[in-house]
Design goal:
With about 110 residues, the protein is of the alpha+beta class. The protein has 2 helices and 3 strands; from the N terminus they run αβββα. The longest helix has 28 residues.
């Protein structure tokens, strides 16, 4: 649910204070735990280290990120592929097919000589 217009957007005051101390174009990473902070136009061009529960993930803010939350760009879950034994067999077959195609492509130019 989005925040009401009369309340305004939420940006962490401590984060804005840190941002105010830096010059435009500064390359230092601003570490933050405020994942709920909305990205504002003043943040464009800066790099934020957004905490995902384990590490600070560097997020370079661009124009198209304005209005989104910082936490959207620092994923908290690592995707582990679906499948198991059957998935490994499918991937091995695909890799084998790729190797055979590469060998065939390599042999073909030599045949033209």
């Amino acid at each position: 649910m989005s925040r009401s217009i009369k309340k305004g957007i939420y940006t962490d005051p401590k984060l804005m204070k840190k941002l105010g101390r830096l010059k435009a174009g500064d390359k230092t990473v601003i570490k933050t735990w405020a994942r709920a902070s909305t990205i504002t136009p003043e943040m464009i061009g800066f790099t934020f280290g957004v905490h995902n529960g384990k590490i600070h993930v560097p997020v370079m803010v661009s124009e198209d990120m304005v209005g989104h939350k910082l936490g959207e760009f620092s994923l908290t879950h690592k995707f582990v592929r679906h499948g198991g034994k059957m998935q490994k067999e499918l991937e091995a077959a695909a890799k084998q097919k790729e190797v055979e195609a590469a060998k065939a492509a390599k042999v073909e130019p030599e045949a033209k000589k």
